[in-house]
Design goal:
The longest helix is centred in the N-terminal third of the chain and has 22 residues, at 46-67. This protein starts with a helix and ends with a strand. The protein is α+β, with helices and mostly antiparallel strands. Helices cover 27% and strands 19% of the residues.
Length: 417
Amino acid sequence: GEGRLVVVRRMVGAMAEEGDPHVAYWSKQTDGTKVIAQDPHLEGFADSLRYRFNQYSNLKNAIEDNEGGLEVFSRGYEKFGFHRQDDGSVVYREWAPAAREVYLTGDFNNWDRRSHGLVKDDFGVWSIRIQEGIPHSSRVKTVVVAPDGMNLDRIPAYASFCMQNTATTLYDAVYWDPSKEWKYKWEGPEHVKKPESMRVYECHIGMGSNDPKIGSYREFAENVLPHIANTGYTSIQIMAIMEHSYYASFGYHVTNFFAASSRCGTPEDLKYMIDEAHKLGLHVLMDIVHSHSSSNAMDGLSMFDGTDHQYFHGGEAGYHSMWDSRVFDYGKWEVLRFLLSNLRWWMEEYHFDGFRFDGVTSMLYKHHGINMGFSGNYNEYFGFQVDVDACVYMMLANEMLHTIYPDVAVTIAEDVS
């Protein structure tokens, strides 16, 4: 825990002051090998540590040179998705580099699949301005013409709300833009500072009801949160917030990363629940899934532009055989923007205070930990089996969160390696 880490640092500091040459040397390094001062057994892997840190530094510098830094890069949701303009029109942008054509359809145009075509730029980003606007709470979908000419119905990747269509059982994107009087007005603190000592209550909103039904955000806020606070917990860690079409996955087969699960209420309801938690002094963590994505194509990210390698690795490398899900390609620029912006979205839009990253073992290693019995041998943690791109993504995520929210953000890795 954090206390143990402080003790180790003090011991290392004392050893350096007493003249331990090993500690003194490695403590001064700035190339990613400083950690060796705390563990001499890592010295044989110094080159691997330098390589990871070099990849991280180069990518961070590239983001600063081309995007204006992580603070700007992590606000991709301000560019992509739907944005109402001052004149009432709505601009929609989508990254779909392999698509031949892209159209927007929905209630707003009586589901005409060809009337509103998007225009593609040099970076594979499609855009359109819907001059007549889109009514709040109306259904929309993206029509992608794949490289082979097939017409594919897709949910916009940055959709902020989705609901199941009872006629098709598939999910539709919902344009969520309530008028000013219906938007939730925050009352409590924007964030709760990270506790010095954390006592975390893990919860699932849908299962947080005494009745045989799926519980709601508002019911949880009124019936459960006060008990959690009175029992002495400092934090709640909430499962299954991101939209997932398969309820029995407990939220771990995410289909829509920017959409709050509609089974428990609306986005405004979720904001109410988090606001109530903050009023009680509870630090709110989100159980976030960036280790994989649902393999669903018609209401998820898989095969979005008609290829298997847009957001994910192509072929076998992009498929998690144990989870029947897709594996992100963390080396792609727009995938990094998507995931970093996803973290920022939940912090900014919903005032979450931090994250518990699920399935980190699957991210760290190309074998995803499948049929691996980790023994503690350091060779298991280095070498070609390591997904360095995923390591770099997590370094960037930590850098972004702890720089922008230094007194608030807590990041926890669920790792079994």
